[in-house]
Design a protein that fits this description.
This protein is α+β, with helices and mostly antiparallel strands. 53% of the residues lie in helices and 18% in strands. It has 6 helices and 10 strands. Helix 1 runs antiparallel to helix 2 and helix 5 packs across helix 6.
């Protein structure tokens, strides 16, 4: 019984000694970390405001804000560890070895990060642009360090890893696209008048951009009709709807003007034997 009491008293004295020796340092280290979190948030907000005034792209701004916050936290973490008396050189060496192993195990992730930095700084496209690459297309919604998210015409989202984008041939439509509607009119029609009427009703559509002006030209002399191509520029959001609206308007205008839209037809002659 006395031995148990002696062991208990010894443990209490050891814990009290450790608390008196390391308690203040541990408390100071915790206060340093809390101060680091608060200072990191303040510096990150100040950096975000400064980058916004400089009109940096959102991905670049978010990247710099995160790096600044991490740098501030790491600085305060080093100060806290030094206050506790931790030897930093062996810790840094161990972290370096662990970092090398992690880098080998996450080569695909790191390649996405490098590609993401390349995209962010070279700016081959921006948020809001409509692009086509590696067999997919859509409007750019977000650009992160790891992937680019596209909004497809059917409102689905396509997530493309950044390493699949860098080095590929990309078609960037920008913020506008050129739609196309083809209509056939009879060979007997007044072609200059038909072209002028179609151009006028195309410009009357509120979705069609005035600059650049729409292209209305004769595309081909087909078997049974003269094909007129209408190619207006519209914003990316209006691309899907403008084709149907123009088709209906062109058919109505041709009917009112008496311009025939002939059906496909063939003339077959039977020749009797001599």
């Amino acid at each position: 019984m006395e031995k148990d009491l002696d062991a208990l008293n010894h443990a209490k004295s050891v814990m009290l000694d450790l608390a008196l020796r390391f308690g203040p340092k541990l408390l100071v280290a915790i206060l340093i970390l809390v101060a680091g979190v608060l200072v990191g948030r303040w510096v990150a907000r100040a950096t975000a405001r400064a980058l916004t005034r400089l009109e940096f792209e959102p991905p670049i701004r978010d990247l710099f804000v995160r790096l600044v916050r991490i740098a501030v936290l790491m600085l305060f973490l080093i100060i806290a560890l030094q206050n506790l008396g931790v030897e930093l050189l062996p810790l840094i060496a161990g972290l370096s070895v662990a970092g090398a192993g992690i880098a080998l195990a996450t080569q695909g992730v790191l390649s996405n990060v490098v590609a993401g930095l390349t995209i962010i700084f070279t700016k081959p496209y921006r948020v809001g642009d409509y692009i086509e690459i590696v067999g997919v297309q859509g409007q750019v919604q977000t650009i992160s360090l790891f992937s680019t998210t596209l909004l497809h015409a059917d409102l689905s989202r396509v997530v493309v890893p950044n390493r699949k984008i860098v080095g590929e041939i990309m078609h960037n439509y920008g913020r506008i696209r050129q739609a196309e509607v083809v209509v056939g009119v009879g060979y007997e029609a007044d072609l200059p008048g038909a072209l002028a009427a179609i151009r006028e009703l195309t410009l009357a559509n509120p979705r069609v951009l005035k600059d650049p002006p729409p292209v209305v030209v004769i595309a081909a002399l087909a078997d049974s009709a003269v094909q007129i191509a209408v190619r207006p520029w519209v914003s990316v959001e209006d691309y899907g709807a403008v084709g149907g609206e123009l088709s209906v308007a062109i058919v109505d205008a041709c009917r009112r003007a008496g311009v025939s839209i002939p059906y496909p037809q063939r003339e077959v002659r039977l020749l009797g034997s001599a």
